[in-house]
Amino acid sequence: MLPNSKGYYGGFGGKFVPEVLMGLLDELEKSYNKIKKERWFADQFKQILSDYVGRPTPLYEAKRLSRKYGFRIFLKREDLAHTGAHKINNTVGQAILAKAMGKTDIIAETGAGQHGVAAATACAMLGLKCKVFMGEEDIKRQHPNVERMRILGAEVIPVSSGTRTLKDAINEAIRYWVSHADKTFYLIGSAVGPHPYPSIVRDFQSVIGTEAKRQIKRQTGRLPDIIIACVGGGSNSIGIFWPFLKDNVKFVGVEAGGIGVGINQNAATLTYGRPGILHGALSYLLFDKNGNICPTHSIAAGLDYPGVGPAHSFFKETGRAEYHSVSDKEALDAFYELSKLEGIIPAMESSHAIAYLNKLKGILSSEAVVIVNLSGRGDKDLDAVLGKTK
Amino acid sequence: MKDIIIYFTYGLVSDKELLKFLDRMYEMGIAAVELGVPFSDPVADGPVIQEASIEALERGGTLQNVIGFIKKYKKSIRIPVYLMGYINSFYSYGLSKFIEDAKASGIKGAIIPDLPMEELNGFRIEAKSKDFALPLIISPLTAENRIKALAKAATGFIYLVPRMGVTGVPTDDFDSAENMIKQIASPLPVYIGFGIHDASSLRSVMKIADGAIIGSAFIKRYLDSGAIDVPIEWLKEIV
Ligand SMILES: Cc1ncc(COP(=O)(O)O)c(C=O)c1O
What we know:
The complex is a heterodimer.
Chain A: E1 8-9, E2 12-16, H1 19-35, H2 39-53, E3 59-61, H3 63-69, E4 72-77, H4 87-100, E5 105-110, H5 114-126, E6 129-135, H6 136-141, H7 143-151, E7 155-159, H8 166-179, E8 184-186, H9 197-205, H10 207-220, E9 226-230, H11 235-241, E10 250-258, H12 269-272, E11 274-278, E12 280-285, H13 310-318, E13 321-327, H14 328-342, H15 348-355, E14 369-374, H16 382-389
Parallel strand pairs in A: 4-14, 5-6, 5-8, 6-7, 9-10, 9-14, 10-13
Antiparallel strand pairs in A: 1-2, 2-12, 3-4, 11-12
Chain B: E1 3-9, H1 15-27, E2 32-36, H2 47-58, H3 63-72, E3 81-84, H4 87-93, H5 95-105, E4 109-111, H6 121-129, E5 136-138, H7 144-153, E6 158-160, H8 175-183, E7 190-193, H9 199-208, E8 211-214, H10 216-225, H11 229-238
Parallel strand pairs in B: 1-2, 1-8, 2-3, 3-4, 5-6, 6-7, 7-8
Helix pairs in contact in B: 3-5, 10-11
The complex binds pyridoxal-5'-phosphate.
């Protein structure tokens, strides 16, 4: 069983949190295990996903892109989900769970602002109070999302500690959580954090893979050869991978290669990191010889994080998935390529997954079927992209 | 006489100054000093210890250096020294090697706020077998049966936190702490830490526990003044 009863995927996972949170995690695990089996929960989740989020999202065969690369490419269109990214699947699920547990004060962290917007959206719809912690650096580069969160009624709390990005937003969210533990529900935005969060997020995001499996069978009569997804904390990737776990399908996770291999030049945790402990879990991590967490860089704010969810560390160690990285420049090229060839402007995060197609060119046969998880749309990235290409 | 323990971040002052500081603490009758191991992402700490941590990191405060320091001055350090830090510092050092090196240098134990009782069991067992203390924290949200289990698993002392939250937020309400102490059946001393900020809060703690741990209020006076005498004078006043 993955994870085991202590929340471990092989040697990765666990609950490395201050004592004050231990009881809450226990309560969360028990409530979740109970509620997820209840009919009303499945029904409500499903209904909101279809009527509100707009699921199922299409699986689109990108013919012009396919022609260019020489194999069949299908895009799982999470960019078409409400609020423009896969993040909403998870926030709806966790918000229903929080409400069922009687919690009305929600906190969340955000990097790109996509999870923050998705959390603010789910909270507005379900009548919950929402505070979003966001690094000042990210507030600058993702400003439209900050305004969206505010319009949706959330309080955005700027984080000025540390590197002022996603990692520090999580630190601050944890500090707030520790201080208001009895009243607050922490709505984590990726498949990271202490057990049971990585598995809860995985379960809610698995709708992506479940749909994709049905859709690819219908459209091609078979399973794909390869599934590609970008990996920040690892939620869109685990969501599309998980339902194919036992199938003969290759998984490729694409990390942020940034501008180089040095410290503060990338955020490619599984490529350059080693096992360590941060934000509640033992998993691959970027840290120096003294154990201090390395600053990271990526053109995609949503990938700019030194850690990764424990399931991916397990997949890497067991060889179930491969992890590679592509540079800012390659992702940027892919961003323009998909926009021009298919009329789809992808999120910078998702552009990393698209960019990996280039590495398969000339290797796959023309019958090969590849699914790329297009985790989000690129509207939020225009400032960052135009700044780079000016 | 009850115990007072002072927390001070390693790396904030030079080794020479720290050595003098440890000696003065001993002369004053302080029971032990916890040296904070600076970490980049101290999630259990409020602004004061965060700032101390950043400053100490910039000055080269590392786990390796603090162990080296204690080892080098082993003979002249008379006060018991514990370390307080985050698990990744110890994990990346190597847990077995850490116990071995820390023990050999004379360090009594380590308080690790993000390492709950259930995790890294091998580390706990090894520490116990080598008589290296790993105190555990009990929080106001810790359930009664869990308090019993924690009190049993802890070594060295029991660290009771009187309120929710990070270090540094002043506390004057110790009612829940008093109730929790009644539930702890352990031969180990029970120390209250987090939020002790003046003579009155110290007095309240001394009435109910075996001792008090003072951190942020002490460090803040050092950070504000840049002189170690300032927090020491303050400490003399409130004791
Ligand atoms: C569009 C999009 N894709 C991917 C990610 C990366 O997160 P994860 O790895 O959890 O899917 C983000 C994070 O903000 C995002 O906004």
